[in-house]
Structure to design on (236 residues):
């Protein structure tokens, strides 16, 4: 599998076409952004950690019945994935209040929710990914009713699988963002699952081991990514 043309360069990844029209190669970068691109930086070694961690989690999820875009890990930073049409929704599942949820609703970070909850944002950088609901998603033609039902079902399943996996690694899964795509008419999990897209707190100390260390200038950013990686792969 070889890269042919660069299709796209995003904030954290480059995407290339291959000789197979159904397969792309993603190449993970060390660059990090936050607050809709306002804050920029480099997290050394992040690309490789996110690539390997995401690939491992996607393979676990496949075994548990969640179809994903994962095809094959090609190197530390590069992976072959199915070429999907991304559903322009950021799907966020939360177990414990944090971040924008805490701010919007005035609920202290760390408050355990009575049950996992889901929300959608419209993927649109120019608008700052505004919060929307199912009805907006359908009215705007972003996804059909059936697709939204499938997305919700998979999102909660991903939460259950990841929650118990991370707990085995002594990490609390606070919340996470996932994206889905359409592949030959089916909804499958795409993009990535990594400390860039999940909030992970140490079970005993509640130490933040995720991108909030970068967003909030908490220090030891690289070390946090390495620690998550070690814990996951140490338990494999
Ligand atoms: N998240 C993400 N990309 C985004 C926005 C959020 O990966 O563009 C993740 C974030 O890392 C966290 C979860 O989604 O795990 C919920 O984020 P929240 O809505 O609280 O937003 P934030 O406080 O990060 O702005």
């Amino acid at each position: 599998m070889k890269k042919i043309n660069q299709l796209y360069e995003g904030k954290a990844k480059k995407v290339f076409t291959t000789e197979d029209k159904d397969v792309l190669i993603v190449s993970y970068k060390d660059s990090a952004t936050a607050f809709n691109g306002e804050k920029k930086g480099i997290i050394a070694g992040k690309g490789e950690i996110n690539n390997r961690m995401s690939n491992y989690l996607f393979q676990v999820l496949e075994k548990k019945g969640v179809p994903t875009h994962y095809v094959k890990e090609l190197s530390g930073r590069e992976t072959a994935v199915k070429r999907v049409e991304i559903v322009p929704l950021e799907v966020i599942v939360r177990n414990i209040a944090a971040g924008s949820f805490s701010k919007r609703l005035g609920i202290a970070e760390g408050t355990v929710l009575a049950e996992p909850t889901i929300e959608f944002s419209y993927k649109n950088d120019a608008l700052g990914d505004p919060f929307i609901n199912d009805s907006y998603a359908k009215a705007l033609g972003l996804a059909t009713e059936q697709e939204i039902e499938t997305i919700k079902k998979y999102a909660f399943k991903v939460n259950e699988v990841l929650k118990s996996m991370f707990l085995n690694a002594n990490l609390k899964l606070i919340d996470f963002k996932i994206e889905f795509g359409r592949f030959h008419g089916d909804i499958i999990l795409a993009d990535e699952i990594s400390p860039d897209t999940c909030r992970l707190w140490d079970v005993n100390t509640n130490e933040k081991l995720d991108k909030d260390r970068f967003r909030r200038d908490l220090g030891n950013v690289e070390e946090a990514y390495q620690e998550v990686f070690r814990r996951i792969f140490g338990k494999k």
User: Anything to note?
Assistant: The longest helix spans residues 145-168.
